[in-house]
Amino acid sequence: MTAASFSPARAARMTADALRGRTVDSPQCGVIQVVDVTADGQSWPIRIRFTARADRWPVHRTWETTFETADVTDEDEPCTGEFSDDHALELAANALTLLLEYLATGPGGGIHEIDVPPA
User: Which one, out of 4, 41, 94, 97, has a CA that is 20 to 30 A from the CA of 19?
Assistant: First the structure.
């Protein structure tokens, strides 16, 4: 089996489960906690939208990012054919890394904010 055989619905659901409830420290915002995750994975790329709260935000904020099969496969390693918990944890960690990069440098890097709060 190849990576293309990964079920996008299963991948999105497992990644959402791995992301839900995660926390990360941000120099810009203090502790960020993921409070809600919505996964849309009917086809690749899978889309993950997550809402987070942080010490310095008056309201929850929401971001969205997408992942391709290439984000969970390595051309140099054989693929098991099954989307695993390890894959989901890797994508969840990548989503949080993209969030931290967004907060540090601004828009870009494969993530964007949804429903941007007024300045």
Answer: 4
